[in-house]
Design a protein that fits this description.
Number of strands: 5
Structural class: alpha/beta
Largest sheet: 5 strands, parallel
Shape: rod-shaped
Helix content: over 70%
Radius of gyration: 72 Å
Strand content: 5-15%
Order of helices and strands: HHEHEHEHEHEH
Number of helices: 7
Distance between the termini: 159 Å
Length: 311
């Protein structure tokens, strides 16, 4: 029960009490009308007034309830409106946040793309620079190698020319010495054959013996060097490829010793320009390519000893 309803009940009670006193006074005043009729009228009036008071109370209660209902509905509507406004505001804020995050993500991806493109461009430029530097280095290396090769070729040509001049001078000296000395006969001529192949030594020895030359055999360059130290032959016929000391080293050793520097040397080797150049530089007089005609070897021995004119 609300406060208003309580106040109404109190008011009704007060009214009823007043009416009862009024009726009591009225009854005592109008005793002549009859107690029963008066009581009935008073009761009817009291009931009527009580009914009117009850009706007023009910109407006021209903009015209060309607007002409370309207107030509750108003408050509920306001709360619903607030909740809807808050929901819409939250959705709008969420949309704005999502849009902001999407924009930030797009900006981040764009920045990453631009960074990646810049890095790719820098890498391409770096590789291009490295490739250009490598090509330039290769070009310079090729030019330097070509320059060194030209210098080496010129040095070899100069050495060959110098050696040819030296050999020509030695050849002229040997010719003068041979012309002044008594020419040896084949029986008086000693030819040393230096070769690590026994078959070659035997074959060459038989050829020389058939032309009445004295023959000394050496199994390799070291063996030939030891024998030459003891007794210098008139001609040295040597192979190139031999174990220990090869023919080129043997020729250099012979030319380096004043006692044997004049010794004619015939070298038998493969037909190679490089080996011919090396042989000439080592002081070899004649280079015979394998295989060679036997008469050619005899002719070169005769020419070196001055027994026949040079052809």
């Amino acid at each position: 029960m609300s406060m208003n309803e309580g106040l109404l009940l109190i008011a009704v009670g007060v009214v009823v009490a007043v009416l009862l006193r009024f009726l009591a006074a009225r009854r005592s005043a109008v005793k002549q009308e009859g107690r029963e009729a008066l009581d009935q009228r008073v009761a009817d009036e009291a009931e009527r007034q009580a009914a009117e008071a009850a009706a007023r109370h009910e109407a006021e209660r209903q009015a209060v309830e309607a007002a409370a209902r309207r107030e509750a509905e108003r408050q509920a509507a306001e709360a619903a409106a607030r909740r809807e406004a808050e929901r819409q505001a939250a959705e709008a804020a969420a949309r704005r946040e999502a849009e902001r995050q999407a924009a930030e993500a797009a900006a981040h991806r764009e920045a990453e793309r631009q960074t990646a493109e810049a890095a790719a461009r820098r890498e391409v430029e770096r590789r291009a620079v490295e490739e250009a530097a490598r090509l330039e280095a290769e070009r310079r290396s090729v030019e330097e190698a070509q320059r060194l090769e030209d210098e080496e070729r010129q040095a070899v040509e100069a050495a060959i020319a110098e050696e040819s001049a030296r050999q020509a001078a030695e050849e002229a000296q040997r010719r003068r010495t041979a012309a002044a000395a008594q020419v040896k006969t084949p029986e008086q001529t000693v030819v040393m054959v230096a070769d690590d192949s026994r078959v070659v030594r035997v074959k060459t020895g038989r050829l020389l013996a058939a032309h009445r030359y004295q023959v000394l055999m050496a199994e390799d360059g070291q063996d030939a060097g030891r024998q030459i130290e003891k007794a210098v032959p008139d001609v040295l016929v040597t192979d190139v490829d031999m174990p220990g000391m090869d023919g080129l080293e043997l020729a250099r050793q012979v030319r380096g010793n004043p006692r044997t520097a004049h010794l004619p040397i015939i070298m038998v080797t493969s037909d190679s320009d490089e080996l011919r150049i090396q042989a000439r530089a080592a002081g070899v007089n004649v280079v015979l390519g394998k295989p060679y005609p036997e008469e050619q070897l005899i002719a070169h021995i005769q020419q070196l000893l001055g027994n026949s004119p040079r052809t």
